[in-house]
Amino acid sequence: MRAVRLITTLTSLALLSACIPMVESYYRLDREGSKYFGEICVSTVGTPSIIYFPFEEIFLFASVDQKPHLAELGIQVPLGHVVQVLDKSITIAYELNGQIESVPVPLQPARLPRDKYNPVRDSAPTDPYGKEDYFGVLTGDTATIKWPFLFVFEGESVGHKTYLFHAEFQRRSEAGSITFPTMRIDGRLFPGPRLPFKKDTRVSIYPLNC
């Protein structure tokens, strides 16, 4: 019986420590003072394709996926603040043959993907999708979120109310920029920040258990 338990324990430890290296390409967004997150394992694993940064009194994040060609833009609003998205589209710009071509792309409200263990996407107090007008006045909220990830990841983080948008587009170049919509934050008007992006390659280490 002891031998069975020992073998089971050693097998579990081996699986926990086992990792798989993978070479992946992704689109990297750029902005000074930003943090970068992966896609899984509480944002610690995968290509750093999600950019996250403060903007005035709120927080913004974005990513550009390769398949399908999809831009995700998120707005995190802390308690006591309000935001209104004034444009129903974003601008995606490319440099083609020495010329800059800008294309407006419609924004669509989206549900927070709970299947991705990412604090940027997954730590909102509630998912407002289907409950609020995403182009109306967006109210904030703040809560302490507990992470019950078995015995691998445990702890707490502070989450703000998160509004997620999708924008599907036809990629025309491996580099370009996306520009957030104009926003009214606590009654003040701000043009959306512009984020350059380019295709990059990275060796990522994926654990078998996460």
Description:
It is a single chain. This protein starts with a helix and ends with a strand. A hairpin with a 2-residue loop joins strand 14 and strand 15. Strands 2, 3, 4, 5, 9, 11 and 12 form a 7-stranded antiparallel beta sheet that branches. A 5-stranded antiparallel beta sheet has the order 1-16-13-7-8. The chain is built from 2 helices and 16 strands. The chain has one domain. The protein is mainly β and 210 residues long.
Task: Considering the chains and any ligands shown, give keywords for the structure.
210 residues, mainly beta, seven-stranded antiparallel beta sheet, five-stranded antiparallel beta sheet, 2 helices, 16 strands, 10% helix
Task: Compute the CA-based radius of gyration.
Answer: 20 Å
> In percent, how helical is the residue content?
under 10%
Shape: globular
- Structural class of the secondary structure composition? mainly beta
Count every beta strand, where a strand is a DSSP E run of 2 or more residues. Answer: 16
Outline the biggest β-sheet. 7 strands, antiparallel
Helix and strand run: HEEEEEEEEEHEEEEEEE
Termini separation comes to: 29 Å
Number of helices: 2
